Amino acid sequence: MDLHILEHRVRVLSLARRGLWLYTHPLLKLLFLPQRCRCKFFSLTETPEDYTIMLDEEGFKELPPSEFMQVADSTWLVLSVVSNGCAPSGCQATGVTKIARSVIAPLAEHHVSVLMLSTYQTDFILVRERDLPVVILTLAGEFDIYKEENGESIPVPCDDASNGFLKPKSAPSPTLHPVQSPQNRFCILTVAPDTLPAIATMLIDVLFYSHSPPKEPGAGDLDSITFFSFSLIEGYISIVMDAETQKQFPSDLLLTSSSGELWRMVRIGGQPLGFDECGIVAQIAEPLAAVDISAYYISTFNFDHALVPEEGITEVIELLQKRQESSR
């Protein structure tokens, strides 16, 4: 397998709900007119707490600073695993559990914090720019590593990364965070870019106007959760929405997997997670990979979210709870 370091340099930020009005205009530009700002990596995820945005430097220029915007200190680089010559956005994703053992677990062991963004097409692993030498050294034994430059894939020699950097000692055992499972049933969808205008008014309504009152996350299962994710990355669109929201959209324009399966969510974190903490993704991905359960994974500014097939949610919750109990 090959590991590609994409050209995007990504910023991660949180927008407070009460300040969304200030950003409606630039967000509409990023959503529907990316050619106007040359943004090639844009993802917007609504959660009960806030809106998380991941976007490249060209897109970041569109957002005015304000008291409502909180930006993570680091710049993040985007990694993508390519197998059998399949381009990063050329086929439907198989789920983050497929790269749990080869990417996520080794990075956690070497104290590299990651953010995950699973889309309909592929899985993106975001690492802080300053951690790239450690990432290359850690994964060079498993992957041929390439760096994308001006549309070309340039091999990255491992020796170049080791110059001046020492391989870190293994990290201590990560904290196991509590998990919650809201009752929503989710869909993972895509639309053809040329049909995006046909659902524009519905997207605007869902993202900016159909707000439910924020809910305080509690212990155990949640009745439901506000969650909607839209990604436009290198021309490919991915949408995650619950089944009730999907009813607002014309079914003939939304493309799902051939099985049309629904997904349930596992929400990680009883309190906001820190960007410096490692092993959060591995907490979910490793045990699911061990029993061959697929999962999509979306990191946000405060919490992480895994989506697993609906029929497997009971097994997943039991598996994760047993792991937590055994760690005490």
From TrEMBL:
Coiled coil: none annotated. GO terms for biological process: negative regulation of TORC1 signaling. This is Cytosolic arginine sensor for mTORC1 subunit 1. Residues 177-258 form the Cytosolic arginine sensor for mTORC1 subunit 1/2 ACT-like domain. Functions as an intracellular arginine sensor within the amino acid-sensing branch of the TORC1 signaling pathway. As a homodimer or a heterodimer with CASTOR2, binds and inhibits the GATOR subcomplex GATOR2 and thereby mTORC1. Binding of arginine to CASTOR1 allosterically disrupts the interaction of CASTOR1-containing dimers with GATOR2 which can in turn activate mTORC1 and the TORC1 signaling pathway. GO terms for cellular component: cytosol. It comes from Chrysolophus pictus. Residues 9-68 form the CASTOR1 N-terminal domain. The lineage of its organism: Eukaryota, Metazoa, Chordata, Craniata, Vertebrata. InterPro entries: ACT-like_dom_sf, CASTOR1_ACT-like, CASTOR1_N, CASTOR_ACT_dom, CASTOR_fam, CASTOR_mTORC1. One of its GO terms (molecular function) is identical protein binding. Keywords: Cytoplasm, Phosphoprotein, Ubl conjugation. Residues 72-139, 259-321 form the CASTOR ACT domain. Belongs to the GATS family.
